[in-house]
Specification:
68% helix; disordered C terminus; 218 residues; mainly alpha; two-stranded antiparallel ribbon
């Protein structure tokens, strides 16, 4: 899911996508930071680290391989705070793991992974937290798989905008998405079931700062 430096900067459409991705990521990150309860920052840091480490776990897919993402799990637990968590993890990846993303594409890569994470948070948070065992497992699978698949309409148009030479790369991305989504779904479902048994507060505790009520003098 990582688009490296230089891929999109060669065409006007690609540059426009980079700028739009950076702007949207800045807005999402600002919203996430503004609403975070800072007593819960260790949870954000832990999931950011998990996202970073997941990139080291390579999964063989035929003649190629890919790596775990876990953006579904991050989004399920953090909501909008997934933006700053994923942003920091991707920044560290681009610095310490050459070939995984880049600085100029940091905003777009963050958007590609964080926006689906926020969407699955609202779709699957309730059954993952309060549903029965089967419902929670299905919610975890849905969050992991859907967060992976939702990256497709964000990444593929960006690759196509980079020029004709990247059509093969876009098609290759489509081919690995389905099996990767199934793997992400299984891993996320297992994580949800595990957390409900040993650390349910990670799913149940509020992350957001309460919105203060305005008291009228009248």
């Amino acid at each position: 899911m990582h688009i490296p430096d230089g891929v999109l900067s060669g065409t006007p459409a690609g540059i426009g996508i980079l700028v739009a991705g950076t702007a949207l990521t800045a807005a999402g990150t600002a919203l996430g930071l503004r609403r975070i309860d800072y007593e819960q920052m260790p949870r954000v840091a832990m999931l950011s680290a998990a996202f970073f480490v997941a990139s080291l776990v390579h999964v063989p897919l035929g003649v190629t391989s890919t790596h775990l993402v876990l953006n579904g799990l991050v989004g399920l637990i953090l909501g909008w705070a997934a933006f700053p968590a994923i942003l920091i993890a991707l920044l560290l990846q681009s610095i310490f793991l050459p070939g995984l993303g880049g600085i100029t594409t940091l905003g777009l890569n963050t958007l590609t992974m964080a926006l689906p994470a926020v969407l699955v948070h609202y779709l699957f948070r309730r059954p993952a937290r309060k549903g029965g065992g089967t419902a929670a497992m299905l919610a975890g699978f849905g969050a992991g798989a859907l967060a992976t698949m939702l990256a497709t309409p964000l990444v593929v148009p960006a690759l196509l905008a980079a020029g004709d030479g990247f059509e093969v790369l876009a098609k290759g991305f489509l081919l690995v998405q389905v099996p990767l989504a199934a793997i992400e779904g299984l891993v996320t479902a297992s994580a949800v079931v595990f957390l409900r048994k040993v650390r349910p507060e990670l799913l149940d505790a509020p992350l957001w700062l309460p919105v203060p009520l305005e008291v009228s003098d009248g």
